[in-house]
Amino acid sequence: MELLNVENLKMYYKTIRGDVKAVDDVSFKLDAKDALGIAGESGCGKTSVALAILRLLPSNGRIVGGDITLAGESIVKMSERELRQKIRWKRISMIFQGAMNALHPTYTIGHQIAEAILTHEDVNKKEALERAEKLVELVGMEADRVKRYPHELSGGMKQRSVTAMALACNPDLIIADEPTTALDVIVAAQVLNAMKDLRSRLNLSMIVISHDLSMIAELCNKIAIMYAGKIVEFGDIASIYKEAVHPYTDKLIAAFPSVLGPKTELSSIHGFPPDLLTPPSGCRFHPRCQNAKQICKTSEPKLIETSRQGHYVACHLYGR
Amino acid sequence: MAKEKVSIEARNLVKYFPIKLGFFKTLVSKQIPQVHAVDGVSFEIRKGEIFGLVGESGCGKTTTGRLLVRLLEPTDGEVVFNGTDISRIPKKDMRKLRKKMQIIFQDPYESLNPRMSVYDIIAEPLAIQKVATSYEEITDKVQGALEDFDMVPPEEYMYRFPHELSGGQRQRIAIARAFVLRPEFLVADEPVSMLDASIRSEVLKLLLSTQRKIHASFLYITHDVALARHMCDRLGVMYLGKIVEKGSTEDVIHKPLHPYTQALIAAVPVPDPTARRISVTLKGEVPSALNPPPGCRFHTRCPQASEICRQKEPPLLEVANNRYVACHLHSGA
Known about the structure:
The structure holds two protein chains of two kinds.
Chain A: E1 2-15, E2 18-31, E3 35-39, H1 46-54, E4 61-70, E5 73-74, H2 80-87, E6 92-95, H3 109-120, H4 125-138, H5 155-166, E7 173-177, H6 185-202, E8 205-210, H7 213-219, E9 222-227, E10 230-236, H8 237-242, H9 247-254, H10 294-298, E11 304-305, E12 312-313
Parallel strand pairs in A: 3-8, 3-9, 6-7, 7-8
Antiparallel strand pairs in A: 1-2, 1-4, 4-5, 9-10, 10-12, 11-12
Helix pairs in contact in A: 3-4, 3-5, 4-5, 5-6
Chain B: E1 6-18, H1 23-28, E2 34-46, E3 50-54, H2 61-68, E4 76-81, E5 84-85, H3 91-98, E6 101-104, H4 118-128, H5 135-148, H6 154-158, H7 167-179, E7 185-189, H8 197-214, E8 217-222, H9 225-231, E9 234-239, E10 242-248, H10 249-254, H11 259-266, H12 307-311, E11 317-320, E12 323-325
Helix pairs in contact in B: 4-5, 4-7, 7-8
């Protein structure tokens, strides 16, 4: 069943020097119970996509084209009031990057989770606090941690608390922006396992934004690779890992060293990501692509389905 | 590989940081609490060798790195560089030695002075150490350093300021600055953890090729086991201020002996959806270094802990050729 549909989304940031095309013609679909990973280098627009879905744009950002529909209902056309009452937190909630450091230091964890429930649902405070306790247990902490203040918790527990907070109103979709980046390897693995467990138990849909492909490989079943504001490859995670079609995806995967596999030369991508004020003509990856042909410089490749079902790629070289 | 000369050696290094108490508490308390950041760490790095220190944050790996180049004074123990103990020599003599030992910091956004141009940043160590004095000579060296790190043409980057550079370019400048004096020993403290994966490998490649060119010995500090595997010849695994396992990189990663090393390696996510899933065997987080647990420091989280682990601290023993582990399970007892 289709849950979220993003169609030709364009989101620009207005600056003195012109429009920064952070998200430029991005389309993807998300089915219920799917976990989609959005990967790419910093500045490729992955967080902007997430912010656009919730319409939580900074004052200079605006959606200039395209549509986002949640179960058939357009989010882009909705009024701010409707959005707040019906969508945010109730149907889509977000775990922001570094959210664990944004917890209010002078309120207990329980209070902060209950606050979200009280704002969005018609319950009394006692019920809200009881639910907060259940949520804390759900993410794998002891229920009495709700009485703790953020400074009394470790990084892993704070990350679990913000995850609990995102689950407060039983959303259909959770967007997690770099949920494990600030954590240590072992703690990150614990949080990752907790999220995997939640996904299967609550039948959640997820969008996970990360630059870390290994983390996405652990958690998601679909992946979208973004480069300079565009999706260059989209599909089933196993299919993409088995055989990436886009040269960028290929390089990105090879840039991650493996712990146990054969020791290979680390591959790298020459050059630097482009400036989104004036993105390169044609295929945006062509200045860094080793296989670039004349056509790549002049015409922009469309996202087309490959011979494998559900696997899309935007590259002129595909099929040649 | 033929045995090279030992370049730098840490002998039983100890660093405690005292906690600042209020005035009244200092009068009352018998003992000032101390953070046991590094507690008896020994290893040696041979010429041209890359030694990696891995562990979670707070395990003391950065402190160890700083002790080696004497940015921190050790509480106890020795740092032997080219055969002489440098941990007690006067500051004046230390400055001469700094020409031979350099450090690359983690965050290129903070380690470069925003008011200095790239040229000034790289030229500063040359001027301080009086390696090059004339303008021509300095310019020549700065250009050479930039070229070494693929910042070509150097004229394009030389007069820029750090804010005009991307993260990857900044870190290259920070590395070029460390290498410009042709040091014999370098400490790299998580040099690429702030960079994107795609840029990371390029910086590492340049780092490796330059290191090989000048045959420097290297201490590579990281929390990323997968990267350490690609960079290092030998590895030391740290937990709460102690080295729990030491050996050649491939041995440590493929045949980890200490339960902590095993858990650390099992926790690394694998960038392949068909590979085995991660299994977390460890519960909880690293205990406080303020009063580390008695006995084996790892016993509170160790799935195989027995009675002896709670009471007696395991020494770091050689269990095979050049393979050390500090664990009662492997001490033969």
